[in-house]
Amino acid sequence: MEYVIAFIISILSFLSPVNSFFLFFFFFFFCQVERMKIVVFLDVQSEALCTAVASEAAIVGDSVEILHCHNSVVQALRRKDKQLQETVNTFICLITEKRSLKDAGVVYALFRRRIAVLSLEEGSIASTSIPLLETISSLRVDLSGGLLQAQILAVKAFFSFNGSVSQVIVFEGGDGVGKATQARLLVNRLLNEGHRVSSNEFPSERNLYGELLREVLSGKKGGIQDLDPKLFSLLFSMNRFAFLPELQYWMCRGTKIVLDRYYTANCGHQASKFPEEERAGFIGHLQLMEVSWLRLPPANLVLYLDLPPLAAFSAMKADPNRGSLDIHETAQSAYKENVRKTYLWCCENMSNWFQIDCCDCTGSRLSREETHNKVYEIIERKLIPIE
C-alpha cells in the first residue's frame, strides 16, 4: 500500500491542486473495505485456547482468518505482509501462549508491524509504554481458577470490543502554547483516576512521510507561501493514516486517547492560508477525507489553547529542550495571527471545540497548573466515566 500511495503522490504533483485533491478522494473511496475482518496469527498449542480464540473472534468479526504460526511468528507475518497492507477495515493481532516481549517474534509484531499482541505466558507483564501489548495482568483477569482458565478469560477480554467507550481528546493551538505539557498532565491525571489512556503526537517522524514532513517543515522545500495547502495537508493526512492500526485498537479497548495535534491541526494551519470565505469549505473537505474516507476516529473533544503569538514565540525561544524552529514557528506575526483567528472560528462554529485562554485578564500567562485546571473543568463535564 505504501508504494501505491507514493505513486499516487507523484502523480498528484503534476496536477492542479483542485484536481489532485479530488483524485486522492476518489482513490481512497475505492480502497475502503466495508466489512470488519479479524486476522489472528495464532501461536497456541492448547486445543481449548484455539477453540476460545475462534469463538470469541467470530463474535466481533464479520469474517475471521486464523493463521497458525508455531514455528516462526516473523515468517508468518512476512508471508502475509503484502496482503495485509491492502486492507483498511481489518483488526490484525498475534495471540501467543508461550512468548513474551523477550521474543523476537513479539517484538517484530509490536514495533515493526505495529499490531496488537496478546501474550498468554504466565507472569508476562504489559507496559503502559507499549499499548498494543496485552497480557493476563493488563486485562485484569482472575488467576484463582488456574492458568488455563485465566488464559481463556484473557482471550474473551481481549475480544470484548462491544460496549467499550473510547474518547479522542485533542490539544490544538499555535506553536509554543504548551500542548505537549497539557497533554502529559491530562494523561497522568486520567491514569490516576483509573482510566485506560494512550497518547500520541502528530506529525510523527516514525510514520509514513514523517521524514519528508520534517524536511518540508525545516524550510528546505520552500517557505510557507510556496507550499500549496491542499497538498501540504495531504502529507499530514497520510502521516496520521499510517497510525490507524493503533488508533483503531485503542478505540476497541475503550481507551481515552489524548493527542497532541490531530487532523484538527490542518483546520487551523492549512485552512488559514485560504481566503476567509473559502476556509469553511476546506475544513469540511478535510474532515470528509480523514474521518469519513480514511476512517480516522473523530475527535470527541478539541481543546484549543489560546495564547497571543508573541507570548508563544517568547516561550519557544526560552525553552532549552526545543530544537531548531520550523517554518510555522518562525513565521511572521501576521501568519500566526491568521492561524489563531482560524482556530477561534473553529471554536465558535464547530461542535466539541473549546477555547482555553492561557492568559488572565491582565494579559499575564497562566501557570501550567492553572491552565490544566481550566482544561479539566471541561474534561469533567464531557468525559465518559469508567464503566
UniProtKB/TrEMBL annotation:
GO biological process: dTDP biosynthetic process; dTTP biosynthetic process; dUDP biosynthetic process
Signal peptide residue numbers: none
Keywords of this entry: ATP-binding, Kinase, Membrane, Nucleotide biosynthesis, Nucleotide-binding, Transferase, Transmembrane, Transmembrane helix
Regions crossing the membrane: 6-30
Domain of life of the organism encoding this protein: Eukaryota
Domain Thymidylate kinase-like: from-to ranges: 171-355
Keyword Transferase: yes
GO molecular function: ATP binding; dTMP kinase activity; nucleoside diphosphate kinase activity
Pfam families associated with the record: Thymidylate_kin
Cellular compartments per GO CC: cytosol; mitochondrion; nucleus
EC number in record: 2.7.4.9
PANTHER family (UniProt xref): THYMIDYLATE KINASE (PTHR10344)
Family: Belongs to the thymidylate kinase family.
Protein's name according to its UniProt entry: dTMP kinase
